[in-house]
Write a structure and sequence with these properties.
The complex is a heterodimer of chains A (about 250) and B (about 270).
Chain A: E1 10-19, E2 22-32, E3 37-41, H1 48-55, E4 63-68, E5 71-72, H2 80-84, E6 87-90, H3 102-112, H4 118-131, H5 147-160, E7 165-169, H6 177-192, E8 196-200, H7 204-210, E9 213-218, E10 221-226, H8 228-233, H9 238-248
Parallel strand pairs in A: 3-8, 3-9, 6-7, 7-8
Antiparallel strand pairs in A: 1-2, 1-4, 4-5, 9-10
Helix pairs in contact in A: 3-4, 3-5, 4-5, 5-6
Chain B: H1 2-6, H2 9-34, H3 37-44, H4 47-87, H5 92-107, H6 110-123, H7 134-159, H8 162-170, H9 175-205, H10 221-232, H11 236-266
Classes of the chains: A alpha/beta (about 250), B mainly alpha (about 270).
The structure holds adenosine-5'-diphosphate (ADP) and magnesium ion.
Chain lengths: ~250, ~270
């Protein structure tokens, strides 16, 4: 599935992020190739969200470089707004715009950011809502949609910008269990279509089936990373093993 | 004591309600008994004067009050938004300037602001406000209103969840676009009730326009009522003018309640 390119789509090196005295990311080196699907797992507070948010510079690291499509986003002269057009992001809490319909949630940035005319923007928005199976919900406001539908609108909103890369921060963690499947199905299809994806998730089954690579993070560092079959079945590091045991058999924790 | 403890909560609530009604009735009856109904009739509610007031200038005065407060509100809202954005700015001097302005004009009685504005031509002989007397009134009411509205708007913007702006920025919107398209529209929805309060306060503060000096055609409700009360040596015109404020504020309350309901539906 992966497209071979001379250099990775995302390339992070020597990344350090502090919140006050809290050293949240410690010298992270991390790269993602075009077309690759990388799942990031790890305990709560290990820095997964922060790492993801450094990829589109929602968090500014204190040191290190973040190259996306060959452009250094940490360069003070980088046009970060232009760079973010190519990086879609999906949040745990959806963050849909409550005062806009599903269609306008998807069309808004096409008009304000890309300067498209409303009919063109709506055409693209409609196509992307169809892509996530919500053709019949274009006029609905977020409050009228289930959590699963809201998250699919959020995915369609990000896809409408035609990004080169999609970031997912625990996209199913805020959902009722019976709604998780529909969102994962959309993400799986996206992966099959060749989208480059970085997915922070606790859905180990999804990671096992869909990811090209799984990254295990703990205490602000990448502990190990490998193909899902290897990392999830026979983890090398004790910390990885402990974490997987707790996630896969939560009732036996102790 | 024993008997009261034996009462069920429902019975106790019932007694409490009966007591409340009893107090109300006693107060109303007392007031009715003490009042001099005849004097009230002919100095507060003289029927011929009511009619006379309504046909001779009430509508004009009502319109003026409306025009003064609406203009003041628009200027106050615009300046208030600007001040709120300054208070939220990354640039410290902007924050300081806005804070000083807000604290200064919030603390000052509206009366003093009006007096300062009526003296402005003395201090700056060349200075004339456009569309007299509207320019002066709008500016004075706008300044008074903006100081209050700035704090309301700032609080409204800060009440919009951070994820909203993050979502907008992650789509490539600039900070300004995210503010205009995402944060402010939601902030204004949150602010409908407090902004209504400020509009109603402005409508009432517009009764201070007499300070800038008005010709009869530009009288607002209060000034008009007072003038007519003086000429007729009777309070009735002032009562009618007072009720004129309700003609403005009651439909406003209904309209705003509708807006709130439809905003709630869209959420
Ligand atoms: N905005 C913030 N301000 C201060 N501390 C933060 C902030 N965001 C995250 N942190 C801290 O950074 C650490 C990593 O958080 P996060 O990246 O959210 O972890 P994860 O997503 O793996 O649960 C935690 O200790 C968290 O408390
Ligand atoms: Mg997280």
């Amino acid at each position: 599935m992966s497209v071979t390119t001379s250099r990775p789509l995302v390339s992070i090196s020597a990344l350090n992020k502090y919140f006050g005295d809290n050293h949240v990311l410690r010298d992270i080196d991390f790269a993602v190739d075009s077309g690759e699907v990388v799942c990031v797992i790890g305990p709560s507070g290990s820095g997964k969200s922060t790492l993801l948010r450094c990829v589109n510079l929602l968090e500014r690291p204190q040191s290190g470089t973040v190259l996306v499509r060959g452009e250094d986003l940490t360069d003070p002269d980088c046009d970060i707004d232009a760079a973010r057009r190519h990086i879609g992001m999906v949040f745990q809490q959806f963050n849909l715009f409550p005062h806009h319909s599903a269609l306008d949630n998807c069309a808004l940035a096409l008009m304000t950011v890309l300067g498209k005319k409303r009919p063109d923007a709506e055409h693209i928005a409609r196509a992307n809502l169809e892509r996530v199976g919500l053709a019949d919900k274009v006029d609905a406001y977020p409050a009228k949609l289930s959590g699963g539908q809201q998250q699919r609108v959020a995915i369609a909103r990000a896809l409408s910008m035609d990004p080169a890369l999609m970031l997912f921060d625990e996209p199913t963690s805020a959902l009722d269990p019976e709604l998780v499947g529909e969102v994962l199905a959309v993400m799986r299809r996206l992966a099959d279509e060749g989208m480059t994806m970085i997915v922070v998730t606790h859905e180990i089954a999804f990671a096992r089936e869909v990811a090209d690579r799984v990254v295990f993070m703990d205490q602000g560092a990448i502990v190990e990373q490998d193909k899902p079959a290897r990392l999830l079945s026979e983890p090398k590091e004790p910390r990885t093993r402990d974490f997987l045991k707790r996630v896969l058999k939560p009732t036996e924790a102790g | 004591m024993k008997r009261q403890q034996a009462l069920s909560p429902r019975r106790r609530a019932q007694r409490w309600r009966v007591l409340q009604y009893a107090v109300l009735i006693v107060v109303l009856a007392g007031a009715a008994f003490v009042a001099d109904w005849q004097t009230i009739g002919h100095t507060f509610f003289d029927p011929t004067l009511i009619w006379h007031t309504i046909v001779h200038g009430l509508w004009r005065a009502l319109w003026n009050t409306l025009a003064y407060s609406a203009g003041g509100f628009v200027i106050g809202l615009t300046a208030g938004t600007l001040l709120a954005l300054m208070r939220l700015s990354d640039i410290a001097p902007y924050r300081w300037l806005a804070t000083i302005y807000i604290e200064f004009f919030r603390g000052l009685p509206a009366l003093v602001v009006f007096m300062a504005f009526s003296l402005l031509p003395l201090a700056f002989p060349g200075l004339t406000m456009p569309w007299p007397p509207y320019g002066t009134v709008w500016a004075a009411l706008g300044i008074v209103g903006s100081a209050y509205m700035a704090e309301t708007i700032r609080a409204g913007v800060q009440a919009v969840p951070r994820g909203q702006v993050e979502a907008a920025r992650s789509l490539g919107m600039t900070a300004g676009q995210a503010m205009r398209k995402i944060a402010l529209p939601q902030a204004f929805r949150i602010m409908i009730p407090p902004l209504t309060n400020e509009l109603i306060m402005l409508i009432k503060d517009s009764s201070l326009v007499f300070i800038v000096g008005l010709s009869a055609a530009n009288f607002d409700l209060t000034k008009f009522g007072r003038a007519a009360a003086n000429t007729n040596v009777n309070i009735t015109p002032l009562v009618v003018a007072g009720l004129g404020y309700l003609v403005i504020t009651l439909p406003l309350s209904i309209l705003v309640r509708r807006m709130e309901a439809s905003a709630a539906r869209a959420r």
